[in-house]
Amino acid sequence: MRERGTPFLAPQQTAAKGRDFGGMWTWFFRHLTELGSRKWLSRTTGRLAKSRASRGFIPRFARTYGIRVEEAEKALRDYATLNEFFTRRLKPGMRTIDPAADAVASPVDALVTGAGPIEDGTMLGIKGQDYTVEELLGGSPRLENYRDGYYIVLYLSPTDYHRIHVPVDGSIIEREHLPGRVYPVNEFGLTRMKRVLSRNERLVTYLTHGSRELAIVKVGALNVSSIRYAEPQRPKAVKGDELAYFEFGSTVVLLFQDDSFIPREDLAVGLKVRMGERLGQLAP
C-alpha cells in the first residue's frame, strides 16, 4: 500500500528513480572519497599498517587478495608489520627481466589501464578522461620532450608486488616531488573522480637512455602513507634494479619522448603484465 503523500510511479518512472538512486550513491562515494583523501587520514592508516598490532592481519590480508605468498622473500610469520609484508621483496628468480638491449621492461606487476600516443601534449581516454603532460608533470620544462610521445598507465592492485624497478638502462638526470591528494586510483577513482592522476601526490624520475628520455611517474593513492625511493639512490640506472616502492596500491605512468618507443603488438587496456616483461622497445 502506498503511503499518504507518496506519488504513484509507473514502472518506467520507478526504473528512472532507481537510476537516480545509483547516481546519488556515486555522488555520495565521490564526496566521501574527497573527505578521505586528506593526507592526515592517509598517514593515520599508514601508522596503523606500520604498527606491531597490524601483524595479525597479514594472513587474512594475503588470503583476501589472493597474494602468492610462495613468491615472497620471507615466510608470513617473519614479517613484523602489515606494511613490511605489503612492501615485500620477492625471492630471487621470481621475475625475469627481458635482456634485449632495446627492450623496455615493465617496472611493476600491474594492469594496463591506459596506453597510446600522446597527441599534442594530451593523453586521450584514460578511463574516459583526458590528461595533459603539463598537468601530470606539474608544469616541468621537460614536458616539451613528451608532447608527441607515448604513454602507458600501470595500475597496481593490493594483490600485486609493490616494488618499482628500472625499465631501461640509463642515467637518472632528475627526481621531482609533486605534492597533492591521495585519491584512489582504482576503477572507481579513475572513472568517477576528476583527474586523479594529476591531482594526487607524485614522484617523478627522469631517466635518459642514450639520447632518449623517459619519465617514470609514481602516483600516490588512497591509504598510501608515502612513496619511497629505494636506497641508496644512484645516478646510474640498471634495468631491473629497484627504483622505489609504494606503501599500499597505486599507479605508475610511463612517458616516452617523441618518436622513441614502439609498443608490443598486444599492448592495450586490460593487459596484465609482470615486472620485467617486455612492454615494447626503444625506437632505433
Automatic annotation (TrEMBL):
<feature type="active site" description="Charge relay system; for autoendoproteolytic cleavage activity">
    <location>
        <position position="109"/>
    </location>
</feature>
<feature type="active site" description="Schiff-base intermediate with substrate; via pyruvic acid; for decarboxylase activity">
    <location>
        <position position="250"/>
    </location>
</feature>
<keyword id="KW-1003">Cell membrane</keyword>
<comment type="subunit">
    <text>Heterodimer of a large membrane-associated beta subunit and a small pyruvoyl-containing alpha subunit.</text>
</comment>
<keyword id="KW-1208">Phospholipid metabolism</keyword>
<protein>
    <recommendedName>
        <fullName>Phosphatidylserine decarboxylase proenzyme</fullName>
        <ecNumber>4.1.1.65</ecNumber>
    </recommendedName>
</protein>
<keyword id="KW-0456">Lyase</keyword>
<dbReference type="InterPro" id="IPR033177">
    <property type="entry name" value="PSD-B"/>
</dbReference>
<dbReference type="GO" id="GO:0004609">
    <property type="term" value="F:phosphatidylserine decarboxylase activity"/>
</dbReference>
<dbReference type="Pfam" id="PF02666">
    <property type="entry name" value="PS_Dcarbxylase"/>
</dbReference>
<feature type="active site" description="Charge relay system; for autoendoproteolytic cleavage activity">
    <location>
        <position position="250"/>
    </location>
</feature>
<feature type="modified residue" description="Pyruvic acid (Ser); by autocatalysis">
    <location>
        <position position="250"/>
    </location>
</feature>
<keyword id="KW-0594">Phospholipid biosynthesis</keyword>
<comment type="pathway">
    <text>Phospholipid metabolism; phosphatidylethanolamine biosynthesis; phosphatidylethanolamine from CDP-diacylglycerol: step 2/2.</text>
</comment>
<keyword id="KW-0444">Lipid biosynthesis</keyword>
<comment type="similarity">
    <text>Belongs to the phosphatidylserine decarboxylase family. PSD-B subfamily. Prokaryotic type I sub-subfamily.</text>
</comment>
<keyword id="KW-0865">Zymogen</keyword>
<feature type="active site" description="Charge relay system; for autoendoproteolytic cleavage activity">
    <location>
        <position position="165"/>
    </location>
</feature>
<comment type="pathway">
    <text>Lipid metabolism.</text>
</comment>
<dbReference type="GO" id="GO:0006646">
    <property type="term" value="P:phosphatidylethanolamine biosynthetic process"/>
</dbReference>
<keyword id="KW-0472">Membrane</keyword>
<dbReference type="GO" id="GO:0005886">
    <property type="term" value="C:plasma membrane"/>
</dbReference>
<keyword id="KW-0670">Pyruvate</keyword>
<feature type="site" description="Cleavage (non-hydrolytic); by autocatalysis">
    <location>
        <begin position="249"/>
        <end position="250"/>
    </location>
</feature>
<keyword id="KW-0443">Lipid metabolism</keyword>
<keyword id="KW-0210">Decarboxylase</keyword>
<comment type="function">
    <text>Catalyzes the formation of phosphatidylethanolamine (PtdEtn) from phosphatidylserine (PtdSer).</text>
</comment>
<dbReference type="InterPro" id="IPR033178">
    <property type="entry name" value="PSD_type1_pro"/>
</dbReference>
<dbReference type="InterPro" id="IPR003817">
    <property type="entry name" value="PS_Dcarbxylase"/>
</dbReference>
